[in-house]
Amino acid sequence: MKSQIQKLYLDLVLINIIVFIFEPILKTKDFSNEILFLLLITSCSIGLSFGQIDQPSLGAGYSNFTFYALNDMSQTAYSHNDWDIAFSTDAFGAGIFVNEGVGLSFTGQLPVTELYLTESSDFDNVDTSNMVRIYNQEITWEEGAFNHVKDDNNPSDYGWGDYDFTTHVISGTRLFVIHLKNGDYKKLFIESLSSSLYTFKYANLDGSDLVTETIDKSSFDTKNLVYYSFEEQSILDLEPENWDMLFTRYTTPLDNPSGGVIEYTVTGVLTNKDVLVAQADGIDPDAVDAADYEDEMGPEISS
After folding, report:
1. Which of 4, 9, 71, 31 is nearest to 287 (CA)?
2. Which of 155, 185, 188 is CA-nearest to residue 170?
3. Dmax of the chain from CA atoms?
4. N or C terminus: fewer CB in 10 A for the chain?
């Protein structure tokens, strides 16, 4: 284990942010609206405490999401179009995420993947009249959009399904509809998580083209997530073994002038699990003392 807190210097145009990382991964806190906008229109560079500068590549129009490793400054990039949903590989978790990543276009909205919760319980007769769009919360790698619809007062409720304390199986209880980037709508039911096996099925809204899949999360236990593409009908291993930061685009709630909340797509940085991070901004990067921020270290992947 490293004995000292490391300092990472993010240079975002004219705005300097110091992020202190402890063992061994970085995570930034939420940026202000101004910084989010600057991230959308310019590239960002990374300056490490020992003076190295690097620039993560997100592709033309921020079309990629990029894993970045601090120890060797390596990058692993994939297109936002490569996957649709992803499953937590945590031994005791049942998190399922939707892909909110989409490139940036100044000429029109690019296709996005949208996840909806329905009021239906019958897969054969799904009712789409009162669907509600749901989102990831970018708090942990153990819970995604499929989980955030749970009843927090019910310990057996995992959102997409309920846990049986006798069989130790989570069985599906909620029915979803997903709108894919190619324009297709699919009804989607997570049938179960039994031991390490996720089982789910999906079909067109009229029931045609039914597909049932099983994913063994234990085959990906060194990763946070295992990914799935509906268009390719394929299970994907995208996450590198070694990474610290994930440069990507995702949806986050922002306050609007009328006092409400809007879900806004931003370009930001998420971090690997088991991380403690503190952010110090508006300071001199050469003079700041990490000891002043030790009490602010937090584990959320985006906070």
Report:
1. 9
2. 155
3. 63
4. N
Structure tokens at 89: 């590989």
pLDDT digits (tens, 9 = 90+) for 10-54: 443 333 444 444 433 333 433 333 322 222 223 344 545 545 677
195/42 Cα distance (integer angstroms): 45
d(C-alpha 104, C-alpha 111), whole Å:
10
Token reading at 87: 């499953």
Cα separation, 301 vs 285, in Å, equals 23
- pTM given for the model: 0.82
* Segment 111-152, tens digit of pLDDT: 889 999 999 999 999 999 999 999 998 888 999 999 999 999
Identify the burial level of 227 via C-beta atoms within 10 angstroms of its C-beta, where 0-12 means exposed, 13-18 middle and 19 or more buried: buried
Give me the residue spans of the domains in the chain: 6-80+242-296, 84-236
Rounded Cα distance between 251 and 302, Å, is: 12
Residue 276 vs residue 176, higher pLDDT: 176
3-state class of 34 per DSSP? helix
Q: Which two tokens stand for residue 134?
A: 């749901």
Residue carrying the six token digits 């991230």: 39
